[in-house]
Specification:
The protein is α/β, with parallel strands linked by helices. It is 43% helix and 24% strand. The protein contains 8 helices and 11 strands. A 5-stranded parallel beta sheet has the order 2-1-3-4-5, with helices on both faces. A hairpin with a 2-residue loop joins strand 6 and strand 7. Helix 2 packs parallel to helix 3. The chain starts with a strand and ends with a strand. It binds calcium ion. The site of calcium ion has 5 residues, from loops. Calcium ion binds next to loops.
Length: 227
């Protein structure tokens, strides 16, 4: 199930957008100001963000700019008619599309699906991930640590690929189960920990780089560090 973060300070709009997205089978999280949007985007890694431009505490521009520093999540800007919206600036800041309010639910859903589809295609085209001391080739299911091929089980490989395709994004155990195993039963969190442990053992290299970071109380994220 894909998760969409709806950032909108006007409650009726927020509720309506959420309702239509839920009806289409999306999971929806909401934020009513820019700061909360940033915190939420970082903690639960949505698949797409619908981002209102005029927001309390931190406006949509700043939120977009901040998110783009570390995340590649697709962003659709929500702008009000009469609001000055510089499309070029929006796209430069990393927004994928924009919708002008008031919009019809059908238009909104069509844009959301189109942007998600594009993001998925772009992700699929990228079949080789390369990080210092680590090369992951998806089409060949091959992993090289410091130039040496290391064997991974299919699930270990998928988990590594998933994390490494979304660097610096924090994933909870539940999200990892859902995305890699395709289901989420709360009791199965130990499966994740076991797999992470094995990944870390296999990824160990003389440079002693750490690729999978534990985020206490939240989950795991992929990041190349020297610690
Ligand atoms: Ca607003």
């Amino acid at each position: 199930m894909e998760t969409i973060l709806v950032v909108e300070d006007e409650e009726p709009v927020r509720e309506l957008v959420s309702m239509y997205l839920k009806k289409e089978g999306f999971r929806v999280e909401t934020a009513e100001d820019g700061e909360k949007a940033l915190t939420m985007a970082r903690s639960f890694a949505p698949d797409l963000i619908l981002l209102d431009l005029m927001l309390p505490r931190l406006d949509g521009w700043s939120v977009c700019k901040e998110i783009r520093k570390t995340m590649s999540v697709p962003i659709i800007m929500l702008t009000a008619r009469g609001e000055e919206f510089d499309r070029v600036m929006g796209l430069e800041l990393g927004a994928d599309d924009y919708i002008t309010k008031p919009f019809s639910p059908r238009e909104m859903l069509a844009r959301v699906k189109a942007v998600l589809r594009r993001a998925k295609q772009a992700g699929e085209q990228n079949t080789v991930l390369s990080y210092p001391g680590l090369l992951i080739d998806h089409s060949a299911s091959r992993v090289e640590v410091n130039g040496r091929e290391i064997q991974f089980t299919p699930k270990e490989f998928e988990l590594l690929w998933f994390l490494a395709s979304h660097p610096r994004r924090v994933y909870s155990r539940e999200q990892l189960l859902e995305n890699v195993w395709g289901y989420a039963y709360p009791g199965d969190y130990r499966t994740i920990d076991t797999h992470i442990k094995r990944l870390r053992q296999k990824l160990k290299n003389p440079g002693a780089k750490n690729y999978i970071v534990t985020v206490w109380g939240k989950g795991y994220r992929f990041e190349v560090t020297n610690e």
